[in-house]
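User: Is it possible to get a 3D structure for a protein together with its bound compound? The compound here is calcium ion. I've pasted both below.
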Amino acid sequence: MNIRKLDEQKVLRDPVHEYVRIEYEVIWKLLDTPEFQRLRRIHQLGAAYMVYHGAEHSRFSHSVGVYEVTRRMINEIKELKEHLSEYEQVVALCAALLHDIGHGPFSHAFESVTQISHETMTIRIIMNGPGIRKLLDEVSPDLAADVCAVIDHTHPRTILSQMISSQIDADRMDYLLRDAYFTGVSYGAYDIERILRTFRIEDSQLVIKYSGMNAVEDYIMARYQMYWQVYYHPTSRAYEIMLFNIFKRIKDVYSEKAQLIQKNALFLVPFVSQSEVSLEDYLFLDDNSMIHAFKKLGLQEEDLILKDLSNRLLNRDIFKFVDNGSELYSEKVKELRELNYDIDYYLAEDSLTQEPYLPYRTKGQQIMILMSDGSVKELSEVSSIVSAIAGSQARRDSKLFFPKTEEL
Ligand code: CA
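Assistant: Yes, that's possible. Here is the predicted structure of the complex:
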């Protein structure tokens, strides 16, 4: 094992955490790998900048933020530093930094069409990424596999996964604050200092002291509000649907119009043909390559659906939406068909639900509260606010998306 600290702590300026502090050589070097640098070219919130123009932040900034929250957990949570070996601390820090390394551009829409999950790609990139694997091996031959085990929840030390991904974890703690900051909405704000101060360890799991419960309630509400205000914003969803339809169209026409795709979006060929997707193919994907393809597809005349959808995307001519109703879908089908729209690409139903908190998750996933008598209780047993929202029916939103038709 070869864990090396930098001679001097390095810092990155960060609008959310002020500073991101780097102590280990492996973390500093991971930042410079091409795989990690690629995250600079992928928006954290996909197309949400079409609604909230400030939401230009990247997966790179979120990833270093999750690293920093994890570093603070290790250094500030009482007993955690002693509870973990130095090697386990490095495993947690690397897992935090790399947990989203497999994300692609417009992940949600792209993954739905190609069936390639970013979780699978994260593991592939950590195990085989040309820059990353070598650096991890220099620390320990086990490090890559240990980092993957933390990310996919198979590591025997569950507290490590709990730190990176549970219902109160470094990932969510960073993205709520970061997404709120960059979108300019105030809902994501909560008291991270208080939460960090009130974390304790009980039975090798993270728990929150009762005196920190109000901060945790606020965090749960912040997440709930961010979902409806930002992540599930209907205009963002309309944009997602258009992206999905473009990718779907590219896939659908590939066998018959291979030349068109090769000419305008050669890098997408492995994803829409039957060929194997290599790591190199995947790492080539970023927002810039996608946007460039949409620009080219917007200029050609061989496939008018791809041309139209690409131009709509580039020029923010987004589908409209209405609340879905029983008769509505068939009415819209008729209306769009009369106007010669192909409903496979111009009409979509989309339903969403959001559970603010899931009390029945397995151990390590629930939020546990440490009571003053030393007992530990699950959050919704103690908090009447959380109990009320966890017990009520999940909010559901069902919408229909289609182009504005009055222009035609
Ligand atoms: Ca994340």
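The beta strands are 5-14, 18-24, 199-202, 205-209, 320-323, 348-354, 368-370, 376-378, 395-402. The CA atoms of residues 67 and 96 lie 5 Å apart.
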